[in-house]
Design goal:
- The structure is a single chain.
- The protein has one domain: Gcn5-related N-acetyltransferase (GNAT) (Aminopeptidase, 3-Layer(aba) Sandwich), CATH 3.40.630.30.
- It is built from four helices and seven strands; from the N terminus they run βααβββαβαββ.
- The chain has a seven-stranded mixed sheet with strand order 1-2-3-4-5-7-6, with helices on both faces.
- β4, α3 and β5 form a beta-alpha-beta unit.
- The two termini are 21 Å apart.
- It binds coenzyme A (COA).
- The site of coenzyme A has 18 residues, from β4, α3 and α4.
- Coenzyme A binds next to β4, α3 and α4.
């Protein structure tokens, strides 16, 4: 079913959301962010923008995206969806949401790094118009792995 995301709303992340966000983070990454890292992104506003996707009916947080906009550059810092809610369009909605904020804020391009073996995320980014523009050898640890750099022209129509 591809319509689930219509049941979610995207809202600014607050400190009160961090516990639930951490549950999703721990379920999603082999080298997860710490609570402190999330708190520091929240404190870095306005450059850092953190949003959660909530299931409308339950208000349960089912995903989140963190990105930074510095002048005309948007960088996606983190993105995850609760494993129980994946493949229903929520990750795509969060990316689309961030690109729209980027457009509205005057960003000209968006970049992100993704693990070379994370084909699911690479598919998502390609689907939304990102293209691979580089590689950072051994960028990640736990496990050590290359990062692929993806870029998106924010002027593109979403
Ligand atoms: C990557 C992630 C955010 C995708 O979230 P999602 O809500 O499942 O994504 P969507 O349902 O919006 O899927 C959008 C596209 O992503 C790709 N995709 C999603 N799940 C996939 C899967 N299991 N296999 C292959 N491609 C997949 C497809 O291209 C899909 O489009 P389609 O449904 O038309 O085929 C989610 O899998 C996740 O949280 N993964 C762990 C954390 C992570 O890797 N974050 C990214 C770090 S760079």
């Amino acid at each position: 079913m591809k319509t689930r995301y219509f049941l979610t709303s995207v809202e600014k992340m607050t400190k009160a959301d961090i516990q639930r966000v951490m549950e999703i983070e721990l379920a999603s990454f082999s080298a997860p962010w710490s609570k402190k890292m999330f708190l520091s992104e929240l404190a870095d506003a306005p450059f850092s923008l953190s949003y959660v996707a909530r299931e409308r009916q339950s208000c349960r947080i089912v995903g989140y995206i963190i990105f930074r906009i510095v002048f005309d550059d948007l960088s996606v810092m983190n993105l995850a969806v609760d494993p129980a809610y994946r493949k229903q369009g929520i990750g795509g909605e969060l990316i689309r949401f961030a690109m729209r904020i980027g457009q509205a804020s005057g960003a000209r391009k968006a970049t992100l790094e993704v693990r070379a073996t994370n084909l699911v995320a690479q598919n998502l980014y390609r689907k939304f118009g990102f293209r691979e523009v580089g590689c950072r050898p051994n960028y990640y640890d736990r496990p050590t792995e290359h990062a692929l750099v993806f870029e998106y022209g924010v002027d593109c129509v979403l």
